[in-house]
Amino acid sequence: MNILFQTWPWYISGFLIAMVMLCLNYFGKVFGMSSNLRTMCTIAGADKFSDFFKFDWKAQRWNLAVLAGAMLGGFVAVHYMSDPSNVAINPKTIEQLAAMGIDAPNGKLAPQALFGNAIFESPKMILILIIGGILIGFGSRYAGGCTSGHAIAGMSNLQVPSLKAVIGFFVGGLIMAHFILPLIF
Amino acid sequence: MKALKYILVGFVFGIVLTKSEAVSWYRIYEMFQFQSFHMYGIIMTAVAVGIIGIQFIKRNHLKSLKGEPIIIADKEPGSFRYWIGGLFFGLGWALVGACPGPIFILIGAGFWSVTLILAGALLGTFLYGMLKDKLRH
Fold it and tell me: Which residues of A fall within a CB distance of 8 Å from B66?
């Protein structure tokens, strides 16, 4: 049973993610998490401001149910299926992070420096998280999908546009990780 | 309950992404530093299995649960929006280490600071809706 608590190997994880996508296909739906952000905007009344948000959001309720399940899954996995051996990243990565003042994982999923509750007292960190969110929300709608819709579902369906988007994801990510993050931290 | 099967699929998704640590800021950073194969392995396995599964569905004309043909729509052709939209997304992904799925999974797991990312993501989505007609696609 130990395997449940340890970090799941990539081949099992990747296989299960594909199964999640195929399951949704079997239900007659497509895998894509960022669409939920648009649905939420519409529910909050964004359709009064832009036609982009005028759509039948009720047809997307199933996707909100997937999200609710995912939140529950995250809760169960973190609270009942974790152990201190988790997030064993490359020691070289830990060294690099230490130089930037970012704490090592020691079993936790996210650094205190970015996600600890103390960040609510730091305007800089609040701004970083909000700006990161804006880039994700804006970029995923501009590109018409995120990691689930393009990288997994689109590429599985051999879509060239998805490949372009994924290359865009990685170019953006590399610029951030190598050039911008060191300037911020 | 029609919603139950979706909640169940989402539940598995949430557990897999958490236990594979794809929701971890550390794993995303490590991936972009090319210091681990882990994340690449996850994505490549998912895509490889996904390709086989979708080909299987298409070639055998499998029917959905409701008995209708399974149609997986092609993405709209184009280039600019994919490159540039993707670039924006990647910048955010590497900065806060979460994509839309993990944002919700982490909030569910009790990382309250991630609600700030969610607020930003909703704002970014809204911003796109407002600017859509002015943007090159």
Answer: 28
Are A150 and B64 a contacting pair, CB within 8 Å? Answer: no
pLDDT at A2: 79
Contact list in B for residue A169 (CB cut-off 8 A) is: 86-87, 89-90, 93
Q: How far apart are CA A185 and CA A102, in angstroms?
A: 8
Cβ contact, residue pair B108, A71, below 8 Å = yes
Interface test with A, best of B27, B28, B72, B125 (most A CBs within 10 A): B125
The number of residues in chain B equals: 137
pLDDT at B1 over 70: no
Q: Tell which residue, B3, B8, B16, has the closest CA to residue B101.
A: B16
pTM score of the predicted model: 0.96
B48: closest chain A residue by CA: A156
Task: Give the pLDDT score at A3.
Answer: 82
Burial (CB count within 10 angstroms: exposed 0-12, middle 13-18, buried 19+), residue B78: middle
Decide: helix, strand or coil at residue A141: helix
